[in-house]
Amino acid sequence: MDEPANNSKISESIITVDGPSGAGKGTLCQLLAKKLGWHLLDSGALYRVLGIAAHRHGICLSDIDELARIARDMDLYFKINEVSGEVEPFFEGSNLADFIRTDEAGQAASKVAALLPVREALLEKQRAFYQKPGLIADGRDMGTTVFPDSAVKVFLTASAECRAERRVEQLKSKGVSANMRAIFDSIKARDERDRTRKNSPLVPAKEALIVDSSNMTIDEVLSQVIEFAEKKLLAVK
How much of the chain, in percent, has pLDDT values that exceed 70? Predict the structure, then answer.
C-alpha cells in the first residue's frame, strides 16, 4: 500500500496538529476541517477506542500481541454529529463518543500508545484516512511519524494547570463533579509518559509552528495557524 506521506502532492494537502491532551487540538482541527472543507483524523480516538475495546474483550493492556491484533482488525468508523459537529467513533456498531473522553480512556490510550507493535498496527490505518481534497490530522506523532512529509505542521500546547482547569469546566458543564487535584495529577502523569516513551514520544516536529494556547482564545489560535498554513502552502507551490 502506498504511503500518502511520501507523495509530494498529497503532503501539500495534509496539516498535522500534535500536542498534549487538553491543549485544544480537537476544537482547532474541527474548525480547520470545516474552514478548508478537508477530512479529519482524530488519531487519539483510535488509541482510546483500542483501550476500550481491550477492556470489553477482556484483554490486559500488557498483552501486546492481542492488542496489536485488535488494532489491525478493529471494526471502527467515524461519523460527524450533525448537531455538535464533533467526530464520533463507532466500534462494532456502538457509539463510543461518551466513553473515549473519560480520564480512564485517556490513561489507557497513553499506555497502549507506548507499545511499538500497536503503533505499527495502527500506522497504516491512520495513513489510510487521507482523502482528497485534504486531511487535518490530530494527534501526538502526526507530524513526526505518521505524516512526516506533511507541508504544514503545528504543535499546540498549554500549561498543565490550564488544561486541568479546562477539563474541570468541561465536566462541570456536563453536570459531572470533578476533582481538580486528581485531574491535574493525571495530566502530569500522562504528559510524562507521552514525553518519555521510547516509541514516537510527544515532541514537536522540527519545522512545526509551536503555539501555546494557555492565554489565547480558540479564534486567536485558529487565526495564527491559518496564517502559518497559508505561508507554508504558498512556499511549496
Answer: 94
Cell of 234: 504558498
Three-state SS letters, 135-159: EEEEECCHHHHHCCCCCEEEEEECC
Q: Domains, the chain, ranges and CATH?
A: 12-236 (3.40.50.300)
The yes-or-no verdict on residue 5 having pLDDT over 50 is no
Separate counts of helices (H) and strands (E) for the chain: 10, 8
pLDDT at 237: 55
Residue 78 φ/ψ, nearest 5 degrees: -120, 145
On whether the CB atoms of residues 89 and 138 are closer than 8 A, the answer is: no
Contacts 24+ apart (CB under 8 A), 94-99: 96/48, 96/49, 96/52, 99/52
Which grid cell sits at 220? Answer: 486567536
CA-to-CA distance for 191 and 20, rounded, in angstroms? 7
Dist. CA 212–CA 210, nearest whole Å: 7
- Are the C-beta atoms of residues 40 and 33 closer than 8 Å to each other? yes
Cis peptide before 133 (omega within 30 of 0): yes
Each residue's pLDDT tens digit, 15-44: 999 999 899 998 999 899 989 999 899 888
Given a contact cutoff of 8 angstroms between Cβ atoms, the answer to whether 184 and 203 are in contact is no
| Averaged pLDDT for residues 89-109 | 87
Crossing angle of helices 103-113 and 180-196, rounded to 10°? 10
pLDDT value of residue 109: 87
Phi, psi angle pair for 77, to nearest 5°: -150, 165
